[in-house]
Write a structure and sequence with these properties.
mainly beta, 5-stranded mixed sheet, 5-stranded antiparallel sheet, 10 strands
Amino acid sequence: MQLTTTLLIVNPCDDEEDNMAMLCCHGKNGEMFMLSRYPDEDEVELTWDYEPSTLDGLKVTLSATTLLVELAADDVDALGGKDRLQITHATAASDMAEVQETLQNILKGTGTFIQI
């Protein structure tokens, strides 16, 4: 499954939301994708088209123009039966360190983060 967005919206530690880490984006056709996690929880919440699911583990690969989210076989319901979502983005290079920090906070101890 693929999604194209202009910007990855991130917050590595939202003080107003109990230090939740969050990555969100909106597709050109109105789709909404979000990954979030509170620091004291073991599960990541994935929201696809406004439907939330909790995941025990996932793999996320980040590059300058692509974010690839891969789910375990048990979690494919979170993406409507698909096991991967490739997000093409145009996030500014100056914002990529914050994207990386956010993904590390979300996935720490619960998933795999790879930066290319």
